[in-house]
Each structure stands twice: as structure tokens, then as C-alpha cells.
Give the backbone structure.
Amino acid sequence: MTDTRRRVKVYTLNEDRQWDDRGTGHVSSGYVERLKGMSLLVRAESDGSLLLESKINPNTAYQKQQDTLIVWSEAENYDLALSFQEKAGCDEIWEKICQVQGKDPSVDITQDLVDESEEERFDDMSSPGLELPSCELSRLEEIAELVASSLPSPLRREKLALALENEGYIKKLLELFHVCEDLENIEGLHHLYEIIKGIFLLNRTALFEVMFSEECIMDVIGCLEYDPALSQPRKHREFLTKTAKFKEVIPISDPELKQKIHQTYRVQYIQDMVLPTPSVFEENMLSTLHSFIFFNKVEIVGMLQEDEKFLTDLFAQLTDEATDEEKRQELVNFLKEFCAFSQTLQPQNRDAFFKTLSNMGILPALEVILGMDDTQVRSAATDIFSYLVEYNPSMVREFVMQEAQQNDDDILLINLIIEHMICDTDPELGGAVQLMGLLRTLVDPENMLATANKTEKTEFLGFFYKHCMHVLTAPLLANTTEDKPSKDDFQTAQLLALVLELLTFCVEHHTYHIKNYIINKDILRRVLVLMASKHAFLALCALRFKRKIIGLKDEFYNRYIMKSFLFEPVVKAFLNNGSRYNLMNSAIIEMFEFIRVEDIKSLTAHVIENYWKALEDVDYVQTFKGLKLRFEQQRERQDNPKLDSMRSILRNHRYRRDARTLEDEEEMWFNTDEDDMEDGEAVVSPSDKTKNDDDIMDPISKFMERKKLKESEEKEVLLKTNLSGRQSPSFKLSLSSGTKTTLSSQSPATNLPGSPGSPGSPGSPGSPGSIPKNTSQTAAITTKGGLVGLVDYPDDDEDDDEDEDKEDTLPLSKKAKFES
């Protein structure tokens, strides 16, 4: 069995029933000779010393708790625990333990929990219930010990909880609390603290119902004030009764709802402030407390939602100009908390909740609130708006488009949001970042609906670019009127970076709307002014915006970039950056590398023609030299159009031939080629390969000439069979006496860049014939008698028939001779 090491903490239970940390190490399982059996070994992480060596006994009860804990007892008063960092490690060791004991790893307990010693100690554990000591001052210590000893065992916890429920024990304990307080019995109060804390850890809803009732909850909080670890008791009750004030912004008439709100606040206070932070063994023992609070919030939201008068009064006062500022702030804070509570609802209930708010007019109310001067009110309104946008952006979009038909652009809800983003006074622009995220959600086509009758994307984007985009770009345009940013302080740079981030998102996700806007408003030129900013992050944002545009490979954008010479700011920034190897340097080089790799011809030519002198000395990367090579290849193809047309002929004839015969023909071609190379004479001497490259024929043309020769020979065979009465071929052939034939074929006068000449290439200096530059491309079979027959390929009948007479009159091109 292989050892498996996992990171764990080793704990032992001390005399005070507290877990002591014995160190962190790695656990493994293996056979230990000294112990004569499979054992658990833990070696210290720091020095490799042995923290634990424990034999896996067949009769020991091991418990797996909370997915990452394994707990067991080695002796009567010696409990051990391994707390795993990862669930996977816990599962693996648990499987080893179960394997040794012959148990199914799906169980959480390998043996019956109650051993003999426990039976002797708790004789009544076998009975249906647990008998609790009588609730008296003198027995508080005994009760505290019983509660503490029951917590490690699920079975004992269950029996203790049932006993507490059935006997009304909690109310008796709280009566003792009053007695201890009156007598100032600090020892008794400390015991009560331990008892009440232990009852919380029993994790039972029925017990919580009793403890959190109106008559008991304040006494429970009182018990938890007397923590033995503190020299002075806390004053939680004083805070809840005197400092914390319940404000009814709108009077609540339902007493049950009011009581539920009070209870939820106090229980939340107990969870957050009163109970000590749970240890690693207790963190999941309060799950029922979390659930109690959760379901209370759901009930509160449901009750308020059903009270139409309450919500009507709320929105009426929110939008009433006569409402004073303090009252309005309380109303907005209430609405914000109300929306936060709604996050606990199930999806279907949340739908009904936001639909109710929408019907009540929450969006018009928010519009009024966002137009106010109070920053706290506006901040709360922004949080409410974010809940709405995250829940249903389509609802918000529909509202603003309807609103645009009635109001001016200045008071539109989205424009108010943009203005608040632009005018954020926070030096770190925390609010602006939040608002920019909301705007991005609203303009994201991915969450827009498309129905049979209308397309939300088309309608909303049309509205946004007409009514809102000019507001968003206003700070950008105002700051880029010169060659450098007008204002270049940190806060302005942050704001412009946010605007650019949103515009970059638009370039990526919107199509003609943003393209028209950028080109018509000359946005890219203004953005590139920011390349001169002293803030590197802003210059990089501007570069990223341009890179996103180039990445689209859209010729409309490319023509706009070339017409306005919009590489100039980028090249200038690159040169100003000098030899520094930083993000700016890498980002600019990557942009030019993209143009080279993607072979964007128009931009390649523009960059080399206008900026080559500035970039030619950059040799630590090959990007710019590669661009120059691309440019020269393009110009060469323009000077020799025959090169491109020959390629198109090769492509056409190669791919338009009948696929069924392609394989057989190519096999025949290669077989014949070998014969030709063995028996034929090379017309050109090997020394010709050193001649001028301009006169060396493209190897592709050579291949085609030889292929055509083979095809002509095959067609001669077909012609002979045709003379015996079979179907006539689709090409013409002239025959004469003589055995030698020469194949003439047009080939370009220059090689493709980088393709070397080869010995015997037709068309190199010294070979018969040269090709005038204006000669059309022809392929002909000629004999010594001088008759010429054009090859008319079967799939080009219509095209070649039209030009046949014209081609008959053309001069012969270079000849490549192969003697059979």
C-alpha cells in the first residue's frame, strides 16, 4: 500500500475539554513493524519530526466530521483529531481507516460511539432520553460539564437537545440567570455562559425558537455577556435597548412583521457580535443559526411586498419634493436594505419582488434621487440601481428607451449615471468603477433579447449612440484638443482610463454603431493623444484601444488609420520609450507583429512607406524587418502581376479538376517524372544556378510545365482511341512527323522571393528562348514541323474557347526539352 502525504493539523483534547494544537505536518498511512499493524503517521512540516504515530485499531471508533476532520479516542481520556487542509486528503486517509476496519468509506462513524467506559459513565445513555441534573445553582457546574462532554458526539448532542426541549429547561436556566445576577454570583454566571454557548452549538431550530422568543432573547444575550475569558462583562443589552434605535421610516401596522424585524436584528447581532468566533471544530455547528436568519429575512421581504399601502407610501415620499433631506436619506437607506434582503430569495420569488418594485415605479424614483445633491443619498441610490441592473438589465433598457421619447438627453437615467461617473470626487474613483461596470452590463449585447417582432440590441444601441455616447466621450474630447492631454493629473487619468475601457468593450462587441462613431467623430486620433500622457497606464489604455481596432482587420478602420496617419503617435511613443524593456515597448511591438503575421497589406505598406526610416535600426526583434520583407513582396507582386495570375492558374487547375481522377493522375505523373529524370537531357548546365535570380524560373512553373507535358502525352493516347470511333476529346492537338516534342510554357521572369534556382530550370540564362514581359500565359504542344495546338482544359471550356483565336497568334515562350 503506497504512502499518501497530506497537510494536517494534529489536535488533542485537554482536561478542560479544549482542543490543543500539537503542530502542522503531513500524514501518511503505512505498516509499522513496532506496532504490528497499519498506522497513521504525521511528520512535522518544519523539521520532519514525528508528531503522531497511531495504530489503526480494528475496534476503535473513528469519526469523520465536516469533510475535513477525523476524530477518535486512543484511551479513556485521550482524544485525537486530524484537521485536513484539503477534503481530498481527508477522504483518502478515511478510506485507509475503513479498509483496515472492513467498513464502507461512505459511513461517517466506523464503530458504535458508546464504548464500555462511556456506558459505565452514562448508564442512562441506552435509554430513549437523557436525564438532566435538576436546574439549581449548586448544579450549574455539573450541567456545564454535561453539555461540554456531549458536544463531540452527534448521538449525545441529539439526546441532550431532546432533553432540553422536552423539559422546558432553557427557561429554567434563564430564571437562574436572574438569580445569579441579583446575587452577583460571577462563578454561576460563567457556568451559564458555557451552558448557553453549548446550547447554540447543538444547532437545533426548536431550541432557537425558544431562545429567540420575545420573552427570552434579551436574557440569552445577558448570559453571553459573562465570558470567563473577559475580566469585565460586555454590555450588549445596554447597547440593544439604549443605543440601537428602531426607526420606522414608514409606519408598520402589522405587529407580527414588526416583531419579526426586531427578532432578526437581535439574532444577527448575536451572530456577529456576541458569540465568539467559532473554532475549526465549531464553524459548521452554527449552520442552523444562519438558516434561522435567512428564513426570517425571506419572511420580512414577503410581508412587506404584500403590504401595498406600505410600498405606495414609501415611493410617494421618496419622490415628493416636500420630503426633507434627512427623511429622504432614511427612506433610501431602507429601500437599499430592502433590496439587499431580496438577495436571499429564491429566483422565482426574486422575480416577483423586482416586478412589484418596477410596478411601483422604482426607476422613476431612482432618477429623481440621483438628481439630488446629497452624496450619501446618491450613493445608496446607486447601490439600488446596481441590484436592478444585475437582476434584469432588459427592464432598465426598456425604461430608458421609453423615457427618451418624453425627456431631454440631459435628464435621462443613463446620462445621469454617466455624469455621476465623470464627476466622482473620490480620489480612487470607487463609485465611478462601480458605475462603469453597470454601464458595461447595459451595453453588453450578450444579455440583450431578440424576439420575432423586435431586436433589443438594434434598438438600444441605436438609442445609446444617439443620446448617450456624446456624454460618455465628453471628458475624452475635452482633454485631447492639443497634441498632449490638457489635464494629466492622476484622477483625470483614472477617469479617462475607465472611459477608454468602456469604449474598447464597445469596439469588441458592437459593430457598425461604434465604427461610424469613431470614424465620424475622429475618436481614435483623440484617443492617441493620450499616448503622450505621463501616466503609463493611460497610454497603455489608448494603445489597447487602437490594438483592438486593428485586431478586427476591418478595411474601413484601416483606411481611416492611414488617411489620418494614426501610427505617428504610436511610433513617437515607441521612440520616446527608447531602449527601455517595459510593457509599453512590448505592447507596441506586439501590435506591429500582429500586422506582420496577419499580413494586413494596407497597413504594412503604410507603415513601411511612412515610418521605415524611424524603425529600420530596431534589430533586437525581427518584427520591423519582417514588415519590410512583407512590403517588398507585395511590391514585387504588383510589379509582376503575372506572378499572381500564374498562382491563380495553378490554384484553379489544381483544385477544379475532377477529384475522382486526381489520385490516379498524380501517381502517373510522378512515375513518368522519374523516367524523364533518368532518360532526359538537361538543357541547362548546372553552372546556371549561379546566374541572376531575376532570370530564374519559379519552380512551381517548372512543375506545371512538366505536368502539362505528361497530360499532353495522355491526351495523345485519348486522341488515338477517338480515331477509332470513340467520343472526341475536349482539346485540340496537331500532329506531324518526328519524334521530338517541345513543351512551351509561360513562366515569370523572376523567382518568388527566397525560392532558389535549380540546375536545369527552363528559362534560366543560356536556355533557348526568353519571355517578353507582355507575353500572355500559354500552354502549347509543338512539334518540329512548327504546328501549335492549344490545350483546352475540360473545366475551362467556356473561358478558353473565347480566347482561343487570340492565343493562336501569340509567340512561343521558353522551351524546356525532354528527349524520350
